[in-house]
């Protein structure tokens, strides 16, 4: 009896561990595969001969790739929208979250609902596009920033957090003559760092990963993001070949000459590396964010 | 140091030209304007569905056609067939999404049975990573693994003698729905389980101890304690999924679409994009887009009612 039960136990645990090892492998291996292809001989990787481990290691691709026309510009746009967009979203969420805790505000609950309700409807993509066009948001860097500044979900997070701060702190500052803006800047902002970090990390990942807005709004290459350029490289092998030829890599040996595969894998790595660097350290912020959100509903 | 004047010692007054009520509102105003511009103003774009609009023309120069586009969805056989096909894809993807919504639950329960903390943490971090990459990158991975020229899977299959030559797995319309739901699961399973893992941790440990004393085995405890414990979380997420039944987004389908799999991959949003932005049928696309928005608001209210009725709590 005892033996049979422990046999069941052992096989359950073995299967369970096996499942998680397999699924974790499936989640990690694609990234590893892309990476070993970027640092192997370009000739071998183009022929699909780099499978389990890197061959003839070199790091030329990461240097060469930035010389491709348009790619460094796209990297610049991606970084700019992530940095500016994140800063703007965090500040706005904190500020509006703070203002909406002020019971004295004129028609406060109406305006709060006016904002929150936008989480639950949208006009549809075509009407949205028409209005973006009318607002001059096509081929305009601001289109990456302005629509993302006010994000109801983040404002709710900030508001809930600020409400948990003892009001005495604000009141004593107000008695000392500090105005709303001073209280916000000097008292509130320093106190809400934990929730600000959560918002920042979510906003940054969203900005970095944004793709569809470029598809709709940008026809001018100046405003292409890394995500969009990567998409183009994956789909347009002809234009990719032209880009590679224009790179003028004639005097480099075959193992380091850029190929469609090397360009695609290297750009993919450039897009994913920031996420990989940031993610493990900030995982708890992600988890916290989704939990607070869930409680709030 | 400057001497402190009488004025500065006075408490802040709510007076001045504006009372504090309106001053607070004015601080918020610029942001409320942004909300209006980017969330409310697009509703005005709905009037394009009443015209025969061509991009590049002024709206007033294009003919007013009334409800013609709405009628044509049901009256024009070609368009009825098109919309029917797209609705079928949309419903299929959402239904598969609802069917697979039990996978994160299973994932969380199985992971909670593992007692090696380090292993558990590592699994959690590594399996949630795919959730934070873009769909473009998922497609880049799909491309690297499945493309016809040098894709890993083709190389392995040929190496094992299971295939004679490369197969273009991406440009095929076989199993399009299945492959979409698989990529979806690959990306979202680990992250989807996070909420349930937290719900399991918050279950009272004494319940398990008591059950053990009563001689309950592992599966009994899962069935009688763990599953009832995470049911509320599952229910809320299920309601949200029902509310978003026709909003399956377009990014995933946009990056994976090609002329060959178009018939089965075009969900509503993607169809609206293809018809309105790439095709010439701008006003028709607006009409479809508008109907979709109305239906999804209806679904949200329905899910909310259902939630109130079943659990006495609303989801919005």
From TrEMBL, chain A:
Pfam family membership, one = BPD_transp_1
* Family annotation (CDD domains): TM_PBP2
Gene3D superfamilies xref list:
MetI-like
Membrane spanning stretches: 12-35, 74-98, 110-129, 141-162, 183-205, 263-282
> Could you tell me the membrane topology recorded for this protein?
Multi-pass membrane protein
Name a GO CC annotation attached to this entry: plasma membrane
GO BP annotations, alphabetical order: transmembrane transport
Which intervals hold domain ABC transmembrane type-1? 75-282
| Chief site of localization | membrane
Subcellular location(s): the record lists: Cell membrane
Q: Which UniProt keywords apply?
A: Cell membrane, Membrane, Transmembrane, Transmembrane helix, Transport
Q: Which InterPro entries match?
A: MetI-like, MetI-like_sf
Q: Which PANTHER family match?
A: ABC TRANSPORTER PERMEASE PROTEIN MG189-RELATED-RELATED, POLYGALACTURONAN_RHAMNOGALACTURONAN TRANSPORT SYSTEM PERMEASE PROTEIN YTCP
User: Which family would the database say this protein is a member of?
Assistant: Belongs to the binding-protein-dependent transport system permease family.
Q: What is this protein called?
A: Carbohydrate ABC transporter permease
Automatic annotation (TrEMBL), chain B:
Instruction: Name any GO cellular component annotation.
Output: plasma membrane
The portions of this protein that span the membrane are 24-47, 91-111, 123-146, 180-200, 221-246, 282-303
- Record-level GO BP terms: transmembrane transport
Supply the Pfam families for this chain: BPD_transp_1
UniProt cross-references to InterPro entries, sorted A to Z: MetI-like (IPR000515), MetI-like_sf (IPR035906), UgpAE/MalFG_permease (IPR050809)
Q: Where is the ABC transmembrane type-1 domain?
A: 86-303
Q: How does it sit in the membrane?
A: Multi-pass membrane protein
Q: Which UniProt keywords apply?
A: Cell membrane, Membrane, Transmembrane, Transmembrane helix, Transport
Which compartments does it reside in? Cell membrane
Question: What's the protein name?
Answer: Sugar ABC transporter permease
């Amino acid at each position: 009896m005892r033996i049979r039960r422990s046999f069941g136990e052992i096989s359950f645990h073995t299967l369970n561990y096996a499942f998680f090892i397999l699924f974790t492998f499936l989640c990690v291996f694609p990234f590893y595969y892309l990476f070993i292809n970027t640092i192997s001989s370009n000739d071998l990787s183009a022929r699909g001969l780099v499978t389990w481990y890197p061959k003839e290691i070199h790091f030329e691709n990461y240097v060469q790739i930035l010389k491709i026309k348009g790619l460094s510009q796209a990297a610049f746009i991606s970084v700019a929208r992530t940095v500016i967009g994140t800063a703007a979203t965090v500040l706005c969420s904190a500020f509006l979250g703070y203002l909406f805790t002020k019971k004295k505000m004129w028609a406060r609950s109406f305006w709060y609902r006016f904002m929150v309700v936008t989480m639950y409807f949208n006009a549809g993509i075509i009407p949205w596009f028409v209005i973006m066009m009318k607002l001059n948001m096509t081929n305009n860097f601001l289109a990456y920033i302005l629509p993302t500044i006010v994000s109801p979900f983040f404002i709710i997070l900030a508001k809930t957090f600020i409400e948990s701060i003892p009001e005495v702190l604000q009141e004593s500052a107000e008695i000392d003559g500090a105005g709303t803006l001073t209280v916000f800047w000097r008292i509130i902002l320093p106190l809400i760092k934990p929730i600000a970090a959560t918002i920042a990390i979510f906003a940054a990942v969203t900005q970095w990963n944004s793709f569809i807005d470029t598809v709709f709004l940008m026809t001018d290459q100046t405003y292409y993001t890394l995500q969009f350029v990567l998409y183009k490289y994956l789909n347009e092998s002809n234009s990719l070949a032209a880009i590679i030829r224009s790179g003028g890599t004639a005097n480099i040996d075959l193992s380091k000459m850029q190929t469609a595969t090397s360009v695609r894998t290297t750009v993919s790595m450039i897009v994913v590396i920031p996420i990989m660097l940031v993610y493990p350290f900030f995982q708890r912020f992600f988890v916290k964010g989704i939990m607070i959100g869930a409680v709030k509903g | 140091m400057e001497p402190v004047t009488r004025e500065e010692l006075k408490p802040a007054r709510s007076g001045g030209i504006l009372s504090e009520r309106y001053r607070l509102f004015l601080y918020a105003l610029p942001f409320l304007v942004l909300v209006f511009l980017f969330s409310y103003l697009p509703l005005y774009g709905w009037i394009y569905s009443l015209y025969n609009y061509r991009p590049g023309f002024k709206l007033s120069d294009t003919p007013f056609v009334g409800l013609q586009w709405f009628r044509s969805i049901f009256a024009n056989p070609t368009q009825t067939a098109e919309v029917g096909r797209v609705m079928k894809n949309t419903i299929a993807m959402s239904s598969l999404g609802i069917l697979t919504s039990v996978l994160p639950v299973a994932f969380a329960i199985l992971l909670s049975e593992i007692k090696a903390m380090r292993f558990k943490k590592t699994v959690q971090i590594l399996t949630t990573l795919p959730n934070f990459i873009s769909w473009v990158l998922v497609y880049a991975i799909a491309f690297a693994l499945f493309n016809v020229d040098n894709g890993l899977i083709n190389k392995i299959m040929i190496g094992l003698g299971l295939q004679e030559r490369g197969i273009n797995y991406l440009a095929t319309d076989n199993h399009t729905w299945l492959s979409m739901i698989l990529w979806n699961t690959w990306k979202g399973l680990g992250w989807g389980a996070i909420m349930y893992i937290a719900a399991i941790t918050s279950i009272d440990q004494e319940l398990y101890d008591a059950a053990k004393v009563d001689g309950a085995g592992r599966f009994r405890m899962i069935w009688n304690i763990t599953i009832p414990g995470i049911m509320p979380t599952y229910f809320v997420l299920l309601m949200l999924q029902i509310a978003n039944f026709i909003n399956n987004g377009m990014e995933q389908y946009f990056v994976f679409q090609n002329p060959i799999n178009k018939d089965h991959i075009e969900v509503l949003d993607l169809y609206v994009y293809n018809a309105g932005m790439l095709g010439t049928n701008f006003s028709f696309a607006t009409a479809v887009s508008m109907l979709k928005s109305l239906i999804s608001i209806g679904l949200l209210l329905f899910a909310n009612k259902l939630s109130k009725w079943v659990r006495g709590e609303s989801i919005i």
